[in-house]
Write a structure and sequence with these properties.
This protein is mainly beta. It has a 12-stranded mixed beta sheet, covered by helices on one side. A hairpin with a 7-residue loop joins strand 10 and strand 11. The termini are far apart.
């Protein structure tokens, strides 16, 4: 018997995609959070640089001079931990409604931002619905909180699920819910009974709310990496030495509350 083997070879063309690389910009992750039950003195700021799309690592911004100044002129210096781009202090003094100024000297240029430490409210309680989602079998979580009356408030929620690597974020304002008890909503198909869901509520300014609201809208847009990218969202940090070399990121100060809920 003669067995005839026909081999079919497929040809693949290698396509080199040219992705334009801009000069690296400073990225500022300066989230100063004063959690309930802590002094709020230990704080950290992360500085990094933008990198080409296909790079696997985010380069840290090393050897910067970082400090925050309060309304009384007190300066809190942040010191880099090794070569991580993470700058820390253990002397910060948080005061609700006080304005602080962040100053960063990096690579011969000065970056400045100012923001107010904003109050918030704790989560009152959590409700669980086991028949949520399109299929009716997903767990839905509602974290209820009471909005203060006759005060313009903005909220930033961080929800950490042990089954998901990346936290989920939500931004809310009380434009139509002033003085009422309202809720932050969370659902995920991987959420299971026994999981500990960490819910953090941060008080934020109107400008940060608008900044985060736009970022979250962009993050929800699906598309290929070669799709036209959304417009750059500018934060509250400016480069006073060279305004055209503006940084990315935000300087935020928040009172914060944490609520840990065990899924039933």
């Amino acid at each position: 018997m003669i067995v005839l083997c026909i081999l079919t070879f497929s040809c693949e063309d290698v396509v080199d995609v040219e992705v334009p690389n801009a000069a690296p910009r400073l990225v500022v992750d300066a989230s100063i959070n004063w959690f309930e039950g802590t002094m709020g003195n230990e704080q950290s700021i992360m500085l990094s640089l933008t990198a080409p799309y296909f790079d696997n690592e985010v380069p840290p911004a090393n050897n910067a001079v970082v400090n925050i100044t309060d309304a009384n002129g007190t300066v809190f210096n942040f010191t880099e931990e090794g070569n991580t781009g993470i700058y820390k202090t253990n002397t910060f003094i948080p005061v609700i409604d006080e304005t602080y100024v962040l100053t960063i000297n990096y690579n011969g240029e000065t970056y400045v931002a100012n923001e107010t430490l904003t109050a918030t409210v704790p989560v009152d309680y959590v409700e669980q619905n086991d028949e949520g989602g399109f299929t009716g079998d997903e767990i839905e979580i509602k974290a209820f909180y009471t909005d203060p009356a006759n005060i313009e408030n903005y909220y930033f929620f961080e929800l950490l699920n042990p089954a998901v690597v990346t936290p989920e974020f939500e931004a809310y304002k009380d434009e139509f819910t002033d003085g009422n008890q309202i809720f932050a909503f969370y659902t995920n198909e991987d959420l299971e009974a026994g999981d500990e869901l960490v819910i953090r509520n941060y008080g934020v300014s109107e400008r940060f709310y608008e900044f985060m609201f736009i970022l979250l809208q962009q993050a929800e847009t699906d598309g290929s990496p070669f799709q036209t990218q959304p417009a750059t969202v500018r934060g509250n940090c400016t480069n006073t030495t060279n305004p055209n070399n503006y940084p990315l990121g935000y300087f935020r100060l928040s009172q914060a509350f944490e609520f840990i809920y065990t899924v039933e």
